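Take a specimen:
=====
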Amino acid sequence: MFPTKRFAAIAMLCWLALPAAQAADQVTGIKGKQIEVFDVPDDTKPGRKVDASGLPWLIKEEKNSFLKVTVAGKDVWIDSMLATVVRDAKSECPPKNPSQPDIVAVLPGAAPSRCR
């Protein structure tokens, strides 16, 4: 591998290793009027039901298919299967260099701002 291609491959792997939850990812809706919240990202112990108020909720962290959000001023975990999540997705197009082939990567939701 050439040094520039190796650097590009390492940069892509580092980018893919970033946490799944971006700062702008939000819970915009839930299934039902109440949602079960947990103190830890695990449903082995029953949670407590709370009203879904103050939507959208900013996602602070993701773990074990649970989302950490702030509900009624408290940080709690909710089951991601019971939430509607809107993800912030954008593409960052590298400058065109005619001497190198295009590097193609897929970003969910990036179609409206795709590289041209």
